[in-house]
């Protein structure tokens, strides 16, 4: 939905902010699905309230104010989203996972094409999954302040206008948020120190990963990890750490994953793959299963996120099925 301009047509300035609002709401909500809902609600409310924009208020600040209020409403009774390693200890006994937690428990990935303000370059690290998990540990209003100030590089005055706060209140909230982040002790913090700018050139590691996984060569797969590398698979809370546990996990899930095919994408600043498992039945082919997001340090895998949620495939522009003849 777009708001009208004075001539009754579509206002491109409003629609032009949709992409960066999605990036903002995603960082606020930790879920691309929740972020899309928040942006859609924002555009609807903008349309309904279009006559309330004051001459002394910028369109961007007004729309961010609406988006923030919608996010705060949605977050009022929501539990904190996290990554599995910040919720439980690594599995002591590795078996095929069974217990699932609600999707609302987890931070979920988003495509690298997620929008950011056109006038700044937003650092890749601000959308890394570990950074998103850290943001979710903040109270929602402090989260909004930190995103606008430190991620989108707004001034304290612009942030105050958008959030209907005083500049002094914005600066105070920012100080509290930064102190909470400094003191936070999350296991996933180690994942924020990835090889920025190096992964693109490390085609060898990615090619070896695809080859090993599609052959389901457990020894070759495990060799790609650091000695203390780990793997998680939301919505299952179980995660594993260390090469011996990784090998046990791959062995336990062989019956399901052997024969899979991978298609490359990028997610949250990291290389990623859509995994398709054999569909079986008369039609054959392959069906979506999960999105692999690879965290890399020093040319080895430090963590592998396996997000098991087939609706994510559409968000990443991946096909809903692979025919046997396509692979």
Report on this model:
The protein has 327 residues and is of the alpha+beta class. Strand 1 (225-233) and strand 2 form a beta hairpin. Helix content is 40%, strand content 16%. Among the domains are: 10-78, Orthogonal Bundle (Rna Polymerase Sigma Factor, Chain: A); 195-326, Nuclear Transport Factor 2, Chain: A (Roll), CATH 3.10.450. It contains 13 helices and 6 strands. The protein has helices at residues 12-15, 18-29, 32-48, 59-75, 129-136, 140-151, 156-163, 167-183, 203-215, 218-223, 243-252, 254-257, 312-315; strands at 225-233, 236-241, 261-267, 270-278, 286-297, 300-307. The two termini are 39 Å apart. The chain has a 6-stranded mixed beta sheet with strand order 2-1-6-5-4-3.
**Gyration radius, rounded:** 21 Å
CATH class (first level) name of the domain at 195-326: Alpha Beta
CATH topology of the domain at 195-326: Nuclear Transport Factor 2, Chain: A
Task: Determine the number of helices (DSSP H or I, runs of at least 4 residues).
Answer: 13
Strand order of the largest sheet: 2-1-6-5-4-3
Return residue spans where pLDDT drops below 50 for at least 5 consecutive residues: 1-10
End-to-end gap: 39 Å
Q: Given the helix and strand composition, which structural class is it? A: alpha+beta
Biggest sheet: strands, sense, closure?
6 strands, mixed
Summary tags:
single chain; 327 residues; alpha+beta; Rna Polymerase Sigma Factor, Chain: A; Nuclear Transport Factor 2, Chain: A; six-stranded mixed beta sheet; 13 helices; disordered N terminus
